Amino acid sequence: EARRLGLTLEKGELRMKAVNSEAKLIHGVARDAVVKIESWSGRANFSVVPMDDFRMILGMELLSTTKIVPMLHLRSISIMDE
Q1: pLDDT, tens digit, for every residue of 33-69?
Q2: Which InterPro entries does UniProt cross-reference here (predicted)?
């Protein structure tokens, strides 16, 4: 997905571990990437990690630096205005 989106990656030695799996070396970090969700847009860093189940996961860094609130019971997110 990172290649398809044209993200430039910085190499790193970080590892990420998911539940019930071994820790895997990340492919790299895309810094200051443009994020657009519906009419909202912003910038964020993305760790590019090998995954089987999802194409992308919005991480805690994005959620804590923006006003995006997950609403799990609705399988949705809310993006608050400034």
Answers
A1: 998 888 888 888 888 888 777 777 778 888 888 888 8
A2: Peptidase_aspartic_dom_sf
